[in-house]
Amino acid sequence: MSPKAAPDPEAAQRITERIEALADWRGAMLAHVRTLIHAALPDVIEDWKWRGVPVWYHNGMVCTGETYKATVKLTFAKGAALDDPAHLFNSSLDGNTRRAIDLHEGDTIDGPAFQALIRQAAAQNARPGARK
After folding, report:
1. Domains of the chain by range and CATH?
2. How far, in Å, CA of 112 to CA of 36, rounded?
3. Are 41 and 119 contacting, i.e. CB atoms less than 8 angstroms apart?
4. What pLDDT digit, counting tens, does each position of 16-39 carry?
5. Are 34 and 62 in contact (CB under 8 A)?
């Protein structure tokens, strides 16, 4: 499922605390995508890396949820290998591996399309020979 043996409640708590500390549209957006991720992959593992970045794992890294002053950035570790018929990816499009979704204040995200990307990323991680 992930490089970790079990979920880390401390990581989940840190993500919750980050959402609460943001106390603006970024916190609400991060909470919303977190809910979508858990609905798409109920056994997803949450981690806290790189001095404050939520990371979701399922058979390897699925995506990160970085927050900046004007953006919530959802970076998919193997996004270039994923089909994106709804064209959610709008950042890091020139790379060979990653793809990202940059969300700004007032943006909405297509929940079913986002969840399809999440499930597809987990399936990509589970393929034989996939680098975790």
Report:
1. 9-126 (3.90.1150)
2. 8
3. yes
4. 999 999 999 999 999 999 999 999
5. no
